[in-house]
Amino acid sequence: MSIQTLVESPAATKSAFSSATFDEYVMSTYGRFPLALVRGEGSRVWDAEGREYLDFVAGIATCTLGHAHPALVEAVTNQIKTLHHVSNLYYIPQQGQLAQWLVEHSCADKAFFCNSGAEANEGAIKLARKYAHTVLGIQEPVIITAHASFHGRTLATITATGQPKYQQNFDPLMPGFQYVPYNDIPALEAAIAQIDTGERRVAAILLEALQGEGGVRPGDLAYFQRVREICTAKGILLILDEVQVGMARSGKLWGYENLGIEPDIFTSAKGLGGGIPIGAMLCKQFCDVFKPGDHASTFGGNPFVCAAALAVCQTLEKENILANVQARGEQLRAGLKAIALKYPDLITEVRGWGLINGLELNAEAALTSTEVIKAAISEGLLIVPAGPKVLRFVPPLIVTAEEIAQALLALERAIAQAIK
Ligand SMILES: *Cc1c(COP(=O)(O)O)cnc(C)c1O
Asked: Is 211 a pocket residue for ligand 1 (Cβ < 6 Å)?
């Protein structure tokens, strides 16, 4: 590539972008929509052609404060000018402050920082296994996870993910995982009874409080209460993957607060840094089974990402964003339900918590979520699928009432266009 291309002014990006050139050099691991986004502000983004979109994807439930939020811009700008990366060989004050905020605002006692959701879940799996071996004396620990779950793309986390499509051709998978249907107590009890024989025992149950990628399926209150009782009675660790639903997206700070229970370990990532890559694994006091040298990350919790996450946390409180998530969530679900009533043959269900909501298309209908999403893009609305038949709505948590209303109108136009 010539230097000339690199120093072009922002205005020139309009003509500079070519998807053919992009595809020539970047691996084709993603199915991409034909759109290059170059600028954002609040809940809006603009493409290379200057077209404006309402962003109800938010980097897939990640841009908590939307785009270019002044608090985030100020925090990362100040931090990168001062000190952006050192190493966990030394104390990192911002990491300590972030851990303190998270512990004071959750059921956890301590935090470990990494860079992504999959990595946070890897940390939780390692911690659960070490606890099983050294505290519970289990020789072959098993972790139970749910069908239709999603826990990441590393080898351990695709194994934990109860969806064969993510595992195919990547075998051999990791030993020590078993799957059960979600929200089904008899199936869980049967699985535990079947596993717990001699050396092989259930060490942990790993679940999402609301299954995000698996179709926006909220956990049942009664199910999770019983899971908690079973775990407590049997000394099984309850690990909740809060990577997508946590950090205020559900209308509570953590998804588990909607279920009236507390996990022993939980993980966070997507919304935590507001779009700056950071993951966290949080745990109750027994996390001290991890000793120096047991687990580490070069980038994990560096000053830059922690300053970003701290700004997100403090802004959530300062701007009372939870109240907005609850009100805008109600508005969005009411609007989606009204649309569903107009298309009873096409739309079978609207469900979700706070600002993570799904609209399920009839499995019998020919229309797929991708077709509706393409029509929505042409109407100026970005949304993301959660499987072939579910449309997912995960806007920034600062989205306004007016923007929700505009998105609903755009969605109606998109559906009308897609069914033609
Ligand atoms: C996105 C997601 C992950 C994986 O996070 P990455 O940052 O992509 O590794 C794990 N669990 C859940 C519930 C997720 O939604």
From this structure: no
Substitution site in 166, 242, 243 for ligand 1 pocket (most atoms within 8 Å of beta carbon): 243
- Ligand 1 centroid to residue 417 C-alpha, Å: 32
- pTM, two decimals, is 0.95
CATH number of 92-318, picked from 3.40.640.10, 2.60.40.740, 3.40.50.300, 3.30.9.10: 3.40.640.10
Of 241, 255, 272, 288, whose CA–CA distance to 127 is shortest? 288
Q: Is 358 helix (H, G, I), strand (E, B) or coil?
A: strand
CA distance linking residue 391 with residue 91, whole number of Å? 43
Q: What whole-number distance in Å separates Cα of residue 215 and Cα of residue 131?
A: 32
Contact 43, 69 (CB under 8 A): no
Strands 237-241 and 347-353: unpaired
Q: Is the CB of 241 under 6 A from ligand 1?
A: yes
Give the start-to-end residue ranges of the domains of the chain. 92-318
CB of 122 shorter than 6 A to ligand 1: no
Active-site residue set: 150, 241, 270
152 close to ligand 1 (CB < 6 Angstrom): yes
Pocket of ligand 1 contains residue 114 by CB under 6 Å: no
Contact status, residue 210 vs residue 356, Cβ threshold 8 Å: yes
Index of the ligand 1 atom closest to the CA of residue 279? 7
Per-residue pLDDT of the chain (420 residues; tens, 9 = 90+): 334 333 444 544 455 789 999 999 999 999 999 999 999 999 999 999 999 999 999 999 999 999 999 999 999 999 999 999 999 999 999 999 999 999 999 999 999 999 999 999 999 999 999 999 999 999 999 999 999 999 999 999 999 999 999 999 999 999 999 999 999 999 999 999 999 888 899 999 999 999 999 999 999 999 999 999 999 999 999 999 999 999 999 999 999 999 999 999 999 999 999 999 999 999 999 989 999 999 999 999 999 999 999 999 999 999 999 999 999 999 999 999 999 999 999 999 999 999 999 999 999 999 999 999 999 999 999 999 999 999 999 999 999 999 999 999 999 999 999 998
